[in-house]
Amino acid sequence: MIINPYLSTGIWLKGNLHTHTENSKCGHYSLETVIDMYKSYKMKYDFLAITDHCMLTKLNESYEDIVIFPGTEYKYRDYQTLGINIKDYCDDERNYDNHQQLFNKVNDEGGLNIICHPHVYEDNYWPLEELLQLNGYTGLEIYNNNVKFDNKGRALATDLWDNLLSNGKKVFGFANDDMHVFQRCGCAFNMALCEEKSSVSILESLRKGSFYSSTGILLNKIEAIDNRLYLELKHHNIPVSFKFIGYKGKVLKESYGHEAEYTVLGNEKYVRIEMNREDGCMAWTQPFWIE
Q1: Where are the domains of the chain?
Q2: What backbone phi and psi angles, to 5 degrees, belong to 205?
Q3: CA distance 256 to 268
Q4: Neighbours of 199 (CB within 10 A)
Q5: CATH of range 217-291; options 3.40.50.300, 3.40.47.10, 2.60.210.10, 2.60.40.3080
Q6: Where does the signal peptide begin and end (predicted)?
Q7: Which helix (H) or strand (E) holds 38?
Q8: Tens of pLDDT along 229-287?
Q9: Cβ 104 vs Cβ 136: under 8 Å
Q10: Within 117-267, where are the H helices?
Q11: pTM surpassing 0.70?
């Protein structure tokens, strides 16, 4: 049986969950400027989380045309995480032993916990052993655009994702800008399939895994019918390479084109789909668990 995280119907909404304003020492723009960037022509994001370092930036009750989530990036430098949709900030930023308590608090408030840039300074920035012991995080950043531009680590962390999935951790993969400067705005995003454009609906879809992550590739369909997985690109003018990936990162099938499908055998444990385009753009579905 295929456990499908995606809603059967809904609307696709585009969002970034890692964003800094001038309230962060490494940020440069006011809150209003940052929001305007993500609402601007052809960007047109539907949701955004403001995650300044070790604080909670004050927001208005609502914003026109975009859903804004309050959030923070916990910890001074090491073992950083995102708390999305939190009500207040309370933490010792140099205490690296209270992550489970933080995760529990965020979850109790109806928020999401996301592991930040796992390979930012070194491959072991977030050790596998640590993440296996922790519970209550929704997922990890499998792609962080700021790490790519800074050239200070590896932006991609799908290797760690497969290790977690293969050890039974049912966690999702996020792609985020980690926006500090304008040139790094709009390069990585999450496309959530939601019932409606509201904070409640968006959070529910993210929490259940009804989203895919991307650096530019857009999808029209993600389906799981009987024992068949099927994907179709939104635009058919540029084909992509599809990889169906399973337990321990094993490539189960590869194909090239505007659509792809895979017949589940039943022994894969999980299947996730990764897409690569010749211009460097990527996209990732969430894992389909096989039971």
Answers
A1: 9-215, 217-291
A2: -65, -40
A3: 22
A4: 14
A5: 2.60.40.3080
A6: none
A7: helix 31-39
A8: 999 999 999 999 999 999 999 999 999 999 999 999 999 999 999 999 999 999 999 99
A9: yes
A10: 128-133, 145-150, 158-166, 199-208
A11: yes
